[in-house]
Specification:
Helices cover 13% and strands 36% of the residues. The chain has 111 residues and is mainly beta. The protein is elongated.
Amino acid sequence: RQSAAFAAERAAWAAAGEFTPRDDVDADPLEVDYTPPEGGTVIGAPMTSSVWKVNVELGDEVVAGQAVVIIEAMKTETSVLSPCSGTVIDVVAAPGAHVASGAPLVVVRPG
């Protein structure tokens, strides 16, 4: 019964556009004029949120699907996954930072 109620609430949020990225959000984002290192794949924030935990450090090897950062929005934690295997060549965000949707979090050089 609880699962059904949550599914109905999630469907209502989706119908209201709550999961659609917006450009008009003023959420005190981490403003970064950022140029990623050459050959890197930027892993960005999927939504406006706070960085709760960074699971990787510069030079770490990651695999596709590995949680590299955990963000928090509306008291819900979301794992941000690496889209590829490779080496972490930059860590942009720090725990506690407020980030806008699309803001760079980590950069991985595929390989």
